[in-house]
Specification:
This protein has 234 residues and is an alpha/beta fold. The chain is 33% helix and 16% strand.
Length: 234
């Protein structure tokens, strides 16, 4: 059975995987869903203001140490793709699989800021206007979302190439928001890379909430799967 570490995207906490966790556990897997530093309800101002990408990678590495996990599957949603890339690069071979769930897949020297589109860079700027160090969540959405540390969006990642040696690397493209996704170019890049498996889900960005059964099925199957659009037979 696998050991899953689930890393949420911007503004979100472990609760964003609440529908997927029990499905994985019922299949016999061990599951750890994280809330990253600066996104926890009891984090003080100094903690939020100083949290960055390194801080979040260290959150994952501390969990691996604390739970004595080897052969981990890291799943990162959206911004969480930056985090699992950084953590895998530093994990000294303890990661067996990376799953970027509609998530950034950075190269050395890139950041969430540089990897996204101008639409989202402008949203980061607007969201940080009130404090200068946190980005307010976009309007609407789950009320549990919290202001996100700006430094984690802007810090460039340092990669040595160790993450490229993870045995299984997968990217899940959510095709149900094609008019806004920043990941279309990334999908094309990874489809051309033999080191990656690319899957597609016909959902919006928050696939783990819109289609938790499909996400859990993808995570627990060894081979690539095709999930038909809603309304078509499975």
């Amino acid at each position: 059975m696998a050991a899953f570490v689930l890393v949420p995207g911007g503004w979100h906490g472990s609760w964003s995987f609440e529908a997927v966790v029990p499905l994985l556990e019922r299949a016999g897997h061990t599951v750890h869903a994280l809330t990253l530093t600066g996104l926890r309800p009891d984090d003080d101002t100094a903690t939020v203001a100083t949290a960055n990408l390194d801080t979040h990678a260290d959150d994952v590495l501390r969990l691996l140490d604390r739970a004595h996990i080897t052969g981990a599957t890291l799943v990162g949603h959206s911004y969480g793709g930056m985090v699992i890339s950084a953590a895998a690069d530093r994990a000294r071979g303890r990661i067996s699989r990376l799953v970027h769930l509609d998530a950034y897949v950075p190269r050395d020297g890139e950041s969430c800021w540089s990897s996204t589109t101008e639409r989202y860079r402008q949203a980061f700027i607007a969201g940080a206007a009130s404090t200068g160090y946190t980005v307010l969540p976009p309007a609407g959405g789950d009320p549990r979302r919290r202001p996100h540390p700006l430094a984690s969006f802007t810090q460039t990642i340092r990669l040595t190439g160790a993450a490229d040696r993870v045995p299984r690397r997968e990217f899940v493209y959510c095709s149900g928001w094609e008019d806004r996704t920043p990941f279309a170019g990334l999908r094309a890049r990874l489809q051309a890379d033999p080191g990656w498996q690319v899957h597609e889900l016909p959902t919006g960005h928050d696939a783990m909430r819109e289609a938790p059964d499909a996400v859990a099925a993808l995570l627990t199957r060894a081979a690539p799967i095709d999930v038909p659009p809603p309304g078509q037979p499975t």
